[in-house]
C-alpha cells in the first residue's frame, strides 16, 4: 500500500462511502480508496468506532467522514446519505462491506439447529442492508452522471460448506441481487461483487482455532490468508475507468480457492 495520499490519484474528485468501513475488509478498502485521492465516508453502527476511524483516516491525510449508521434501517441510511451530500457534495462510489455472520446459529451450526429468525436476520444484514444502501445512492449517483457500487460477497456463495448453509445462501442472494440491479441500472451505474475467500481480519481470526486454520489454508492454493488490501485491490479496479465495461460480475479474490 502506498504510504501517502495521492491527491491527484485515480480517485481524486470522487466521493466514496464504505459501509462496515470501521473494521476488517471495509477498513482496508476505505484506506486504499482514500490513498488514491477519494473523499471517504465510513459507516458502521458504533459511534466510537466511526469517530476513531475518521480520526485515523484524517491522520493519514485522507478527507474522511465517519457516520454512525445501521444499514438495515432506511432512516439511518438516509441520514448517512444526507450527511455525505452535505459534506462532500455528492456520491460516486458505494462499497457495501457491512455484513458477515453474527451468531453461531446463523453460520456455524448444523442446518437443523438453524433458527428461522437467524436466517431472516442474516438476510436483513447481508442482502436487505446492501439493497437499502444501494437504492439510496442511486439518485445521488445519477445526479453526478453515474457511479459504481461494489458489494462484498463471499466464496461461501459457491461452496456448500457444512454449517455455512445460511451464510452462503445470503451471499448467493447478494450475487443475484447485484446482477439484477446491474442490468436495470446500466449504463449509468455499474454494480459488481468481490467475493473474498479466507481473509485475515481481527474478528474472523478470533473465531479460528488451529484445526480451522489448517483446513482453510489447505483449501487455499496460494497458501496464505488474504488481506483486506488484496480485496481492496479488486475494488479499486472495479471502481476505476479500467472497468468501465464491467457490470454484473463477481470477481473471486480467494487465493485460488474454489477453482477445482
Ligand atoms: N473476513 C473474511 O474472511 C471474509 C470472507 C469472505 C467475505 N467476507 C465478507 O466481507 C465483509 C466484511 O467482513 P469482515 O470480516 O471485514 O467483517 P468484520 O471485521 O466483522 O467487520 C464488519 C463491519 O461491518 C459493520 N457492521 C456490522 N453490522 C452492521 C450494520 N447493521 N450496519 C452498519 N455496519 C455494520 C461493523 O461495525 P459495527 O459493529 O460498528 O456496526 C464492522 O465495521 C462481510 O460482508 C463479510 O461477509 C469476509
Automatic annotation (TrEMBL):
CDD domains: SDR_c
Keyword Oxidoreductase: yes
Coiled coil: none
One Pfam family cited in the UniProt record for this chain: adh_short_C2
Tagged with keyword Oxidoreductase: yes
Database matches in PROSITE patterns: ADH_SHORT
TM ranges: none
GO molecular function, one term: oxidoreductase activity
Top-level taxon of origin: Bacteria
Keywords carried by this UniProt record: Aromatic hydrocarbons catabolism, NAD, Oxidoreductase
InterPro entries: KR_dom, NAD(P)-bd_dom_sf, Sc_DH/Rdtase_CS, SDR_fam
Domain named Ketoreductase: residues: 14-199
PANTHER family: 3-PHENYLPROPIONATE-DIHYDRODIOL_CINNAMIC ACID-DIHYDRODIOL DEHYDROGENASE, DEHYDROGENASE/REDUCTASE (SDR FAMILY) MEMBER 4
UniProt family annotation: Belongs to the short-chain dehydrogenases/reductases (SDR) family.
Protein name as catalogued: 2-deoxy-D-gluconate 3-dehydrogenase
Amino acid at each position: 500500500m502506498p504510504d501517502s495520499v495521492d491527491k491527484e490519484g485515480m480517485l481524486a474528485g470522487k466521493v466514496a462511502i464504505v459501509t462496515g468501513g470501521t473494521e476488517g475488509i471495509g477498513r482496508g478498502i476505505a484506506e486504499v480508496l482514500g490513498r488514491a485521492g477519494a473523499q471517504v465516508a465510513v459507516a458502521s453502527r458504533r459511534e466510537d468506532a466511526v469517530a476513531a476511524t475518521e480520526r485515523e483516516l484524517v491522520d493519514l491525510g485522507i478527507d474522511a467522514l465517519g457516520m454512525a449508521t445501521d444499514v438495515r434501517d432506511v432512516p439511518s441510511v438516509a441520514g448517512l446519505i444526507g450527511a455525505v451530500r452535505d459534506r462532500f457534495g455528492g456520491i460516486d462510489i458505494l462499497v457495501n462491506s457491512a455484513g458477515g455472520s453474527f451468531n453461531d446459529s446463523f453460520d456455524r451450526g448444523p442446518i437443523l439447529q438453524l433458527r428461522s429468525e437467524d436466517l431472516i436476520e442474516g438476510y436483513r444484514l447481508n442482502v436487505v442492508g446492501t439493497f437499502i444502501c444501494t437504492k439510496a445512492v442511486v439518485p445521488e449517483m445519477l445526479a453526478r452522471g453515474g457511479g459504481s457500487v461494489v458489494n462484498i460477497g463471499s466464496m461461501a456463495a459457491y461452496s456448500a460448506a457444512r454449517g455455512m448453509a445460511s451464510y452462503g445462501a445470503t451471499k448467493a442472494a447478494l450475487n443475484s441481487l447485484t446482477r439484477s440491479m446491474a442490468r436495470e441500472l446500466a449504463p449509468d451505474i455499474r454494480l459488481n461483487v468481490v467475493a473474498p475467500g479466507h481473509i485475515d481480519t481481527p474478528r474472523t481470526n478470533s473465531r479460528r482455532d488451529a484445526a480451522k486454520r489448517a483446513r482453510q489454508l489447505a483449501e487455499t492454493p496460494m497458501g496464505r490468508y488474504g488481506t483486506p488490501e488484496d480485496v481492496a485491490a479488486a475494488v479499486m479496479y472495479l471502481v476505476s475507468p479500467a472497468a468501465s465495461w464491467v457490470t454484473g460480475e463477481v470477481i473471486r479474490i480467494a487465493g485460488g480457492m474454489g477453482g477445482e
